[in-house]
């Protein structure tokens, strides 16, 4: 069985999808990612789909599921590297990538996650101890 | 034809090899990498082989060729994510990865490239204009 590798880069997990996703590969990737998020405490998942010629409803659903799982584990998912033709087809097919944020490339995805994570600390964590102190970052 | 995506992260190009490399895919990857190094001016290439069960002489030679091409274009190549079984087989087969540096994972590979690049500036660039001035980094 093919297994998609999950690479850790700083606070981010990077997945580059290059193989055709089977049911089994997709489930394995979801499990691997969930385990790595918990093990590493990463706050971002970047999924690169540069290599994909086609994003059908199966892949779309897989991406949505990964985004939902990551969200529960306090990690933001960004899909990057979508080809122009893929974007056009997605819209034509009426497939909306629910709950998925996109960015042009890995670097912009990293910026997006960094910005989102900062926002989270600024506005959402009002009940954390010590939150009233001045932000020293 | 499968095409292995090349991802740019800061000063580094990242390639995650997941598919079986054919002659054509290997040549395409070498061309893509050489073009991207020139276009981006990146100083490091990280090749992740986590997904590879087998590194035979063909893949070994491809990695060596990529490292040599990158070197000519002033970029350091580091192979990361080698599985224990792959390392054992490589040694047993007597395949030495000529001119290839390895690191445990992507993050260590990045550190290695950053360190090498700093060294280069410290010792090798003796003929560059302004080199006599104090290093301000």
TrEMBL record, chains A, B:
Signal peptide: none
Record-annotated STAS domain positions: 2-113
CDD domains associated with the record: STAS_RsbR_RsbS_like
Superkingdom classification of source: Bacteria
Name the UniProt record assigns to this protein: Anti-sigma factor antagonist
Organism listed in the record: Micromonospora haikouensis
């Amino acid at each position: 069985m093919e297994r998609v590798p999950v690479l850790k880069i700083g606070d981010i997990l990077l997945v580059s999808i290059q193989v055709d996703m089977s049911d089994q590969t997709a489930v394995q990737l979801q499990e691997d990612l969930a385990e790595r998020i918990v093990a590493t405490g990463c706050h971002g998942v970047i999924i690169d789909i540069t290599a994909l010629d086609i994003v059908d409803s199966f892949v779309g659903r897989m991406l949505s599921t990964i985004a939902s799982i990551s969200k529960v584990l306090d990690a933001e998912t960004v899909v990057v590297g979508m080809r122009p033709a893929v974007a056009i087809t997605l819209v034509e097919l009426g497939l909306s990538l629910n709950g998925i944020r996109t960015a042009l490339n890995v670097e912009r995805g990293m910026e997006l996650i960094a910005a989102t994570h900062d926002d989270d600390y600024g506005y959402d964590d009002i009940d954390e101890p010590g939150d009233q102190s001045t932000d020293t970052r």
